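Researcher: Batch entry, complex prediction.
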Amino acid sequence: MRYHLVAIILHWVIALGILVLIAMGLAMTHLGLAPLLKFQLYQLHKSIGITVLLAVLLRLAWRLSHRPPPLPAMPPLEKAAAEGTHGMLYLLMLVIPLTGWALVSVSPFNLPTVLYGLVPWPHLPVFPDLVNKAEVEAVVKFIHGKLAWALTAIVALHAGAALRHHFILRDGILRRMLPLKDFRS
Amino acid sequence: MKRLALLAALSLLATPALAADWTVDVPHSHLGFSGIQNGAPFQGSFGAWTAEIAFDPAHPDAGHAKVTIELSSAKTGDLQRDGALPEAEWFDVKAFPEATFEASGFVAKGGDVYEAPGKLTIRGIAKDVVLPFTLTVTGDKAAAKGHLSLVRTGFGVGQGVWATAEWVGLDVGVDVDLVATKSGS
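Model: Structure tokens for the complex:
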């Protein structure tokens, strides 16, 4: 049994988005880019981040209303680890974009967000009106960055486990989430 | 009514016998501004403004002009920038809805070149500026063009993190391109 096509599409859209966002986030903060490029990267990071947040909300709604295909027989500890990893993924995929949104909302730059230069996106409430925006921004920025590293680790764990199932255990678990029907290992 | 009141006030202000009044054709005139963001130049314009002008080319020193600009009407064609301009960091239109330029005593500089020394008020900060302009009068029609260079931070435009030239240049230009009809005196 495979995942529903809707779940598969959302999974890979979110996966691609997360990888791009991590790469962008590192480039924005570590590469010392020219101002225009850096500025444009920040704007695109915000656009993709909100896109991923919306996709995660859809994925979560789909997941809660559709039973995923059952897991094959596996040790209870591994099953618990898989469920724990998925739980962490969902949690971080919600919290990280929200901290990013809060970061933009509390930024002393007070720049409106316009998704892909086309769709105005509001600030979160409360944050823009704080008196100590710079201090709050520093804290939220720290959290956003650390959680992104945590997500990177969890994603690596998730992908590593999927590859282990595919190439070592050969139990077909990865195929349930691949968009290609006749994929063979 | 406002215009009548202003004209009445002007007529009390000394010069009247020789001053001619002009009605500015706002839809065919242009009040623009320009600047540099992240190294890339941009241009914008004010959509809502009024001008009261009393000017006789034979007696420029007796002339008077008042331009009132609704700062919320500033548009540059970029949703993000246009969303930022009315905010407290820039024009702060809630606290300072209007900018004004009030000139009295034009100076003929030879040919069609004139200067309008006056007071420019933005964000409640008034500064003496001199607007050089060229004037072409054809019958009852007049066309005036002028350019003014300003340092935006002199008026507090760009607060906090925006108060340096890191992201947005401090030098901005104001372009005036007026078309007017003599309304008699």
